[in-house]
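Structure tokens please, single chain.
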Amino acid sequence: MGLLRFALAAVLLGSAVAKLGAGERGRRALASYGLHDRAASTIALEAALGVLVAAGVPGSAEAAAVLLGLFTLLLVVAIARGRAGQPCGCFGSRSRIGWGAAVRSSCLAAAFAVLPFLPDTSLSTEAWLGAGLAVALVGLAALAVALLALAREVGELRLAVAPQAALSLDHEGP
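Here you go.
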């Protein structure tokens, strides 16, 4: 439960940071729901709930579930009003109103609602090391895929540009 609690708290905090980082565009994106004048309080509430969930304060997971349920309801209402495709401000100014955002929000609300009912098991040092090793290996695999993709692109560029010797260029040389 501890790792899930921290992961869900990180989602809330990451969302609040992304909204702050988006600046005025992020606040204008919240206007799609009529929250343009309450953007600062919405961001503060989301960040505060993230901190409270991470600290394990009783009732904070339920409050986060209610908040995300409200976000889901606002998304569905916005879709019904024909605002699909407009900025939603969920994770900054780049996210869009749509069914994917509504499903994501409802899944997060369900995860926060279930969190208090999970058994409280604290992770051992070995479990944390195993989780860190797994994350490092996934990152290493992602870097390997990126390196192979880059090498492929360089190869494609070399094939696209015909090799030319220095003296074989038209109107160049002696």
